Amino acid sequence: MKRKPLIAGNWKMNLLNSKVPAYFTALEEATRGIDRQKVDVLLAVPAPFLTTAREHAQRVQAIIATQTIHDKADGAFTGEISIPMLQDIGIRWTLIGHSERRQFYNESDSSVAAKTKSSLAFDIHPIVCVGETRGEREAGKMEEVLRRQMDAILDVVEGNSEFTIAYEPVWAIGTGLVASDAQAQEAHAFIRGVVRQKFGSLADRLRILYGGSVKSSNIQGLLAQADVDGALIGGASLDPAEFGKTVSLASSI
Length: 253
Ligand code: PEP
Hints:
The protein has helices at residues 20-30, 50-57, 83-88, 99-104, 109-121, 134-138, 142-154, 181-199, 202-205, 219-223, 240-251, and strands spanning 6-10, 40-44, 62-66, 93-96, 125-130, 164-167, 207-211, 230-233. The protein is of the alpha/beta class. Phosphoenolpyruvate binds at residues 10, 12, 168, 173-174, 211-214, 232-236.
């Protein structure tokens, strides 16, 4: 049975707090009348907008998430944001280990695992990102990389943990290159298989999102794949009309 799709936007370091109300007005307009039993919506926004976004997101029943967390609850970590701080303002979801965090901020499999473990311990739902680089794919190492990244995550979760995986081939992020529907399905089926080997039926309820240049023109083909349960969308989530169109199409599959 198909899992309910989750369409997640990642604003990265874009937009402004003062633009947030208008964004949600336009998203409300673009998603009016759609069947919300058929799709979940999430936006991962910059930390300074979390409170504003959470207020306005109610209009479109969207979950608001942060883009990263620190694994420690408090302490001398200048510039970081802790999970209790997020909980205190009503945030319950986070991205973890996005490829830009791995690439620019040296996040490793072990720091991704530590963050995943802390978020689960504090009841924050993590969307943990995995994916191979172009070089790794071309060297025939996609499965090896995904297994290594997944093993680190699965070491810190339990059979009843609530989490989401985002498969984001690094070569498809922000490049306009989208994995073909078959390439996405192949990687998602592999990831689900790795989860099944360790946790059995957890694999059946786990949502695996695809990320990498997703937009309204390619969402339907991706969601038609048996193991693709939604999308993590960067660039195309900045335009509320386009993002809303993608949400609408996902609700009609
Ligand atoms: C992302 O930021 O997770 C992403 C997939 O970006 P884009 O959709 O722009 O490729």
